[in-house]
Amino acid sequence: MRIRSLRFGELDVPESKIITMARPILGFEACDRFCLVEVEELAPFLWFQSVEHAEVTFMVVNPSVFYPDYRIEINSKEIAELRVEESGSVETYVIVTIPDDPHKVSVNLQGPVLINSENNLAKQLVLVNSRYRVRHYLMDSLESDREPLVTRGELVGV
Q1: How far is 50 from 33, CA to CA, in rounded Å?
Q2: What is residue 39's predicted lDDT score, i.e. its pLDDT?
Q3: Is the pLDDT of residue 152 over 50?
Q4: Is 150 exposed, middle or buried (0-12, 13-18, 19+ CB in 10 A)?
Q5: Of 140, 139, 86, nearest to 116 (Cα)?
Q6: Considering Cα of 108, then 113, then 71, then 64, what sign does the dihedral take?
């Protein structure tokens, strides 16, 4: 299938890679079908490109890359919408927001996008009563992962 993208121009995407939204991304209800676009230089980030609207694309990332302890609870109704047979077939992505200030790059951990890789059905969840927020700053995550420079009077990692 040939799709248009403002960011990437013309793309050839096999029909088998087209993702259909069982529940749309909030605010983008007119976008029913997407594809994931990999740009090697941006790994681990991917682009979630709308098939119907060339101007609609989201940067996404698997949250476990930056938040290894990220866990969401999904009820059976949510899973049923994606027609999941094996839990290992569900991929989780979060939308990345890239403002002018690179220190303010954030991910939406409260609204993950789930994709059933077996049938390419997807949906955005909205987590309620969750400790996750719409804006988790990646720089904060990266800085908290660093070892301290001084530990018990010794210099570390300088």
Answers
A1: 6
A2: 94
A3: no
A4: exposed
A5: 86
A6: negative
Domain extent listing, the chain: 2-147
CA distance 120 to 19: 5
Decide: residue 85, CB within 10 A, 0-12 exposed, 13-18 middle, 19+ buried. Answer: exposed
Q: Which amino acid is at 23?
A: R
Architecture of domain 2-147: Roll (2.30)
Residues 26/31/36/40 CA torsion (nearest 10 deg): -80
pLDDT tens string 26-79? 999 999 999 999 999 999 999 999 999 999 999 999 999 999 999 998 888 888
Q: Is the pTM of this model over 0.90?
A: no
Q: Are 12 and 1 in contact (CB under 8 A)?
A: yes
